Amino acid sequence: MSIDIEGVSKTFGGFAALSDVSLKVPSGELVALLGPSGSGKTSLLRIIAGLETPDSGRILFNGVEATKRQVQERQVGFVFQHYALFRHMTVFENIAFGLTVKPRKERPGKKEIRDKVLTLLKLIQLEQLADRYPAQLSGGQRQRVALARALAVEPQVLLLDEPFGALDAKVRVELRRWLRRLHDEIHVTSVFVTHDQEEALEVADRIVVMNQGRIEQQGTPSEVYDRPATPFVFDFLGNVNLFQGRAHKGTVQMGGVSLSSPEHASANDAPAVGYVRSHDIAIERESTDPGSMQAQVRYLLSVGPLVRVDLTLPEGDRTIEVDLPREEADRLQLTIGEKVYARARKMRVFVDDYQI
Amino acid sequence: MHVTRNHKNSGTVSEPAWVRYLLLTVALAFLALFLLMPLAAVFAQALEKGWQAYVEALKEPDTLSAIRLTLITAAVCVPANLFFGIVASWAIAKFSFPGKSFLITLIDLPFSVSPVVSGLIYVLIFGLQGWLGPWLQAHDIKIIFAVPGIILATVFVTFPFIARELIPLMESQGREEEEAALTLGASGLQTFFRVTFPNIKWGILYGVILCNARAMGEFGAVSVVSGHVRGSTNTIPLQVEILYNEYSYAAAFAVASILALLALVTLAVKTVAEWKMHQTVPVADKER
Amino acid sequence: MSWPSGKNNVLPGFTPALGYTVFYLSLIVLIPLSALFFKTATLTWEQFVAAVSAPRVLASYRVTFGSSLAAALVNAFFGVLVAWVLVRYRFPGKKLIDALVDLPFALPTAVAGITLASIYSPNGWLGRYLEPHGIKVAFTPLGIAIAMVFIGLPFVVRTVQPVLEELDQEIEEAASCLGANRWQIFSRVIFPTMLPAILTGFALSFARAVGEYGSVIFIAGNMPMVSEITPLLIITKLEQYDYAGATAIATVMLVVSFLLLLCINVLQKWSRRFAE
Fold first, then answer.
1. What is the pTM of this model?
2. Which CATH number applies to C44-275?
3. Do B199 and A101 touch (CB under 8 A)?
């Protein structure tokens, strides 16, 4: 089922949680709503579920208006941040709940419910824990039970609010891969909220980056990561270095070097900011390019497969961060205090009217 | 007797042993004097004249009718306040609206009103010289110095018990489970009975048992509105007073011992309910 | 993110639930209580002042508030002690004693009243030992205070106990590492944390004692000017069909209760000011 969100706004006592948000979620896709806390992503998810009513705007399911539809009638599966498992029911009863509250005419028989729950238990690999209570489960297990419970009613849409937020790092990685595989199997239209860019990049078909109640950018993970539309997106996804400079008629002057920047042809000596990801900077002993900047190695730190190099630029005593792959670092054999050249392989320049 | 520090207080940070023993002795002596001795005295005096006399005193027709009236009163008050308590705590704990804390204060109000004043206000409304007095007399309806007055005054004094127990409990449980039930297609009533109710049932029991104890034991307010008609408008506590004032002490204490037993049962059920309630804090909260 | 307000919350039943709450509250509590003020308003100011400041009434205030204050002070001290012992020490029968602390809540006041009266009467369990030493308890203000200690006891214990339980052991250990001795830790670290709860419990205990009737009248002796409490005076006036007089005194009592309730609310807010 496809979801269309048209011009949705929502305020909570003076705080604009969502301002005029429009979004299309095509049928069968797994979409991530990514943003910092307070960006409105959870509110948007709750509005899709019908747990919150928008002040204005419409929600369409399969092109049919659903804004006024009650939450019970929307056929959404919602996985809550803290799972919201019914603490007085066993795992089995939790998963069966949605089936047992159906009106008598639509309610499946006891045997059918049992088979269905057992199938789901197998899917989440918790067959042997059917009689446990939520309090006796680990966080990751609760998360899977919550998911199975949501899936039991065969929802048209699956909505997940920070599904991995309360889990520790290792379980989180395992579960998100599992979710991705699950989605590849069942292909239900899914929207999940996260503030973790890595999670969004790894799991989602499409990422919607939100900030202050608005959508900053949407697209595939690589589109969003490689071609950030705004400084905010650039800053939010990945580690970034900023270079201050000025743009004038298609040329940008920055840190003593000038770069051509055809998209700013109309700029007239405007302040500009260049964004460079820390792994998009090359360190060289010789200047190979007019864009290379002289710098001094200030600090070296190994972080897993990467080596982080802090460089001091001569003007303004500024520090930039560079992430080198380990082999590259081993080849260079940098020492602290050494003079080197830094070259931005990829830089995105934003002229000042869009500051963060 | 061996006094140890609580397990939390292991390590060097505690008082010297003699201080611990001294504090414990003084505290226990105080409790023995003020709690245990009165409790023991009730039963000792009730059985002073033997088991036979005790049973006789309870079989007295006036006493039996007092027991009946007390049961009727509790049977009306407790369900009325239970229904109110559940409805009020649903509105207050699961929703937010302006004036909420003021509303909670108003619900607590009867606790801070003297029982005598609680009775008096109903006399002022329904009594002969009250607002509705002449009209009630014209229609031959008796409220004051009759059973309805006793029930009204008791409803007033027991009004907050269940609500004030359920409001914080339901607030601490949040709304996520109810929301989850709704997304799974449950109707409002299904959500309440299958999700909310099981989570608050021990809280309900706790409130009900305290409400019941007060309803059966209320003295001041009921005393003002009852008119003390033997055999018809006397509740158990009023019967105790009458017997005591007539110097039939053993009978007075025999009747009082029923109420003391009720108090002990109340404390036992309350302790169990409290223990059970602690087990129903939200799963997510335990983790944090 | 702010909490959604009542009207845009998807849980059902808000309007009927709030409507019934307000309706039942008005019917049972607010309208009857307002009757008291309307009745009082039919008196002239002079009548009102005369009714509430007659010598016998003033004496009853002295007895009621004086005994209540004494009882609340005793409870503040012993309540803290009992709470301390229950939270900090382990001893046999602790669970039972913890449960018994609530006895005064559960035991009907009339039962407490006749029992205390009989214990402290000249030939009662305690009275027979006190009387020869010239200590008269029954039928004196001292007896009134004792009954008030009984009914007010749980308040201080139950407000202080949770505060003590939540008190982080690390705080005491930190103070200890900084060189404080046990008494300094108690007086400078633990006591200030408990103080708001102690004051709240004290106020609750005092408020309960001021309005108390059932447990007091049997032991009080009820001698006008000496051991007659204000709630009893209200009943006496009622029995003499002096509705106006009873109402006027009841209004004073009610206003005092409201003021105490206000104090307690402020105290409770204050005691939560450090809460995380």
1. 0.85
2. 1.10.3720.10
3. no
